[in-house]
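In this section we walk through a basic example: taking a raw amino acid sequence and producing a predicted 3D structure, encoded as discrete structure tokens. The instruction is simple. Fold the sequence below.
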Amino acid sequence: MNFADFLKDAAGVFAVTPEGVVVLTPPEALTDRELVLLYLVRAKVGFETGRSDKETLLASDLISFTGKGSGTVAGRLSELSAEGLVERIGKGEYRVTTFGLHRFRQDVLPKLKG
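The resulting token sequence is shown next.
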């Protein structure tokens, strides 16, 4: 996947600022799974655009960003990992896969833009 094309498709959802990547659209319509994926994609966007030095997030970061409980986040990470959308890098550290970006682009971006 060409990341520049992904960024074009994600225009209006993410803003790349000097301070980092901001989610512009309200994520209230997203499921817990999609919300976890959203923040992992945001981390990837930050890394690919040079606004962050890493493309991973800790489970504790996801709990904070999503406002969901640790059990909910852990369950969604387990499901997303089993489907190949997310991969575990280290203890409690995750990143979105190329397949995860594709599915986000296909399934979640339209919900955020609609």
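Looking at the output, two observations stand out. The chain has a mean pLDDT of 95. The first helix runs from residue 3 to 9. In the next section we compare this with other chains.
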